[in-house]
What does this fold into?
Amino acid sequence: MRMSKWMLSVLIATLVLSFGTGNPQVLAASLKDMKDEKNTLEKKKKNLNSNIQVKEKEISTNQSKVEQIQEKINQLNNEVEKTNSKITALQNEISETIAEIDALKESIADLEKKIQERDEVLRERARAMQANGGTVNYIDVLLGANSFADFIDRISAVNTLVDADRKIMQKQAEDQKQLEEEKKLVEQKLAKLEADKSELEELKASLQSQKAEQDRLVAQLTKELEKLNTEKTSLETDLHEVHELSAELTQEIEAEESRLAELARQAEIERQKRAQAKAKANTSSNTGSSNSTSSNAGSAPSVSNGTWTRPTSGRVSSEFGGRNIGFASSNHRGIDIANPVGTPVVAAGDGVVGRTGVIGTYGNVVMVTHSVNGKIYTTLYAHLSSINVSPGQTVSKGQTIGRIGMTGRTSGPHLHFEFHVGGWTGFGPSAVNPRSHVPI
It folds into this structure.
């Protein structure tokens, strides 16, 4: 792009030098180059704008993805925090359970001591029973009383001993059962807490893994976003340069078109002076009658009096405006006049040749800039087989500028003639029906 700007600067400098030389043909020829360059720049602007829109869409999509992933990361962070809170709560509960287990161990130690003491008592009682034949002779104890009161006391003592033995054995069984149940409950609770903690640790690891993957995606998208922004900035810089180049070219084109218009005005003034001088010299003999007659096919048309004249002889084969071309409809911007190849084509009015050469489907073209009463007009002659004038050349009404042909896109030999108010604007709104000015 910077090279193009440098080349354009060289072109403009060359044009400025050409202005100094006063060579109208060089300047008119360069006008075509400048317009071609401007058309190229307009296409570049369109492509750059299109590419910038694509980049903006890609950036928007990228940012949307980043926002979605960031939202997911935030959710994962919340889940990790909740999981950490649960793990902390479980850890506290495990610590409390371990404390309970420690306290229970002390209780179990006391209970085991009591059970051991009772076991000792029961073993002593069993040894006593074994020494007495396997039974305790409570009758001998009762009959050994010295008195009735002693007998009552001995009965009470025996009952107390029997109840004590029964209670000892019952308490022993209860303590053994309680000991087993408490051990089992504590072990189950601790196992469950450890399992829950392990599950939460796995969940935490999974969440952190997911978060790491999302962080990786964000980093990748951020890098891609930076690249897209850089590319967009580069495109915008190129577009700015193209706008600058287009503005410079527009100024140069306007200057050259103004120069051509001025040449046309000067030619018109000279023509009027010559006409006035001729009128004075031939006042008595000049009748001013019209010379307009029908022309034979293949011959040059008669030149009409007035500002404009018919550009060629022949039959009008297509009028100005909408028309059906068989496979589609189109807006015909001129009038077609059919005649054999080689039929002379003349300038419709006095002016300066602004452009010659090939223009797409028009084929060989001549454009002439006219100045009439201070207003600028442009006539276009297309599909020519030959061109007899060059850019910057002054031409008179009725002067041969080319010949009918079949260049460009055409179904037969004819002249395509356009009339524009102001300069020629390609497919702009400047074209008007030639019949509104020219006697076709």
About this structure: The chain has a mean pLDDT of 79. The first helix runs from residue 2 to 21. The helical segments are 2-21, 24-131, 138-143, 148-281. The two ends are 48 Å apart (CA to CA).
